[in-house]
Amino acid sequence: xxxxxxxxxxxxxxxxxxxxxxxxxxxxxxxxxxxxxxxxxxxxxxxxxxxxxxxxxxxxxxxxxxxxxxxxxxxxxxxxxxxxxxxxxxxxxxxxxxxxxxxxxxxxxxxxxxxxxxxxxxxxxxxxxxxxxxxxxxxxxxxxxxxxxxxxxxxxxxxxxxxxxxxxxxxxxxxxxxxxxxxxxxxxxxxxxxxxxxxxxxxxxxxxxxxxxxxxxxxxxxxxxxxxxxxxxxxxxxxxxxxxxxxxxxxxxxxxxxxxxxxxxxxxxxxxxxxxxxxxxxxxxxxxxxxxxxxxxxxxxxxxxxxxxxxxxxxxxxxx
Length: 320
Known about the structure:
The chain is an alpha/beta fold. It has helices at residues 57-64, 111-116, 126-139, 156-168, 186-203, 214-220, 238-243, 248-255, 294-298, and strands spanning 6-20, 27-37, 40-42, 46-50, 72-77, 80-81, 94-97, 174-178, 206-211, 223-228, 231-237, 304-307, 310-312. It contains nine helices and 13 strands.
């Protein structure tokens, strides 16, 4: 990827949580929610992060959205290091849309105030802020009269549109979407996804799209990163990932994706239910992998380039 086109980049990003023992409250181990993650997102691109629940997708989004402090590593926004602090002039340039639209809105405040609130840190008059809020509400397909409504007066799809409008109102360059349609019905989900695609194309925005729904990832993404136990185990263009999955975990995920034709034979891979272990000196997927080799027991795999912009963490693809 051209360095000039990169909007956001992480270098060996980590976020660990302490797990203390009950006896004397001593630190027993760490949950490595994000561990040594290096990714790039270019201007006008949608990078999807997929993986099972607990893989670290949301934690990664929260760290990039500056809602959690990283344990280690670096975050660069347009070559400016924002790892530890976000300058005031960039506060509206990185925004996040949460999974639950109801909990993301204050139930005691009208929609108008929820939309205007992000603009209070900017030098914008109240009149201009109201006009801008009305514009973005209508952009999301909602009438201006909804500004006088409270969140409980709206449906789930309408609330999610409000949350997206609030994220867009500061005109961000990088938008983090954490399962933005997972709580919506299929028709509303399709409407919002089409709307997000059109807005991205119109404003040349960059999306980090977090989802466990592979159909949504295929529709929205330009590139897909597969996450397991806090690590990106495979990353590449969406066509490469869907047509030529390499990592055993990626194959397991895609096997759970039902074929479009209901008459087609469907044989999902169902791995053994085991607790995730954050191994230091061997592959973290080793307990569930049917293709493990001796090298997996001895070392931690690193990124291996198998094709243009297609990388995988797996010893099966080491050239000998």
